[in-house]
Specification:
Layout (H helix, E strand, L loop, with lengths): L3 H30 L9 H8 L5 H14 L8 H12 L6 H14 L4 H22 L1
Helix pairs in contact: 2-4, 4-6, 5-6
Length: about 140
């Protein structure tokens, strides 16, 4: 249809227009693209972690993280916060006295929600006792 010169000119123009785009992409990737900022862990992510505690070390690391970030009662994610507390409390790697102290610590930091926290901890301990008696 067209001569070879037309196709050669079209490819040459396309190549010259592509070079700045490639250079800009490389510069952007080097200076601005870097690794994305790490996503901050939310209480929902934490709750998923508490559901699968496999060792005493896991429990201790989750407890220290909970005490740093989530000791205050979260009004926006009440159910998730209480589920996290329940999962921590019913862990097999934690004795009953330590769970009671943990519950007392949470009650002292959240005075207006003392009753809810006490009920949650006691329900978790009851579930823990039921599982322990069935497993024995």
């Amino acid at each position: 249809m067209y001569g070879a010169g037309f196709y050669f000119t079209s490819w040459l123009i396309s190549a010259f227009m592509l070079i700045p785009v490639i250079i800009f992409g490389i510069v952007y990737y080097i200076f601005l693209g870097g690794a994305p900022a790490p996503k901050e862990q939310t209480i929902k992510d934490f709750c998923l972690l508490t559901a699968s505690i496999h060792s005493k070390e896991d429990l201790e690391s989750l407890l220290s993280e909970f005490r740093k970030k989530y000791t205050r009662y979260d009004e926006h994610h009440i159910d998730v916060w209480l589920e996290s507390v329940t999962n921590l409390a019913k862990s097999h790697y934690w004795d009953t006295d330590a769970v009671a102290l943990f519950g007392q610590e949470l009650e002292n930091k959240n005075l207006s929600h003392k009753k809810v926290i006490a009920n949650t901890i006691s329900a978790a301990l009851k579930m823990k006792e039921i599982v322990n008696t069935q497993g024995a």
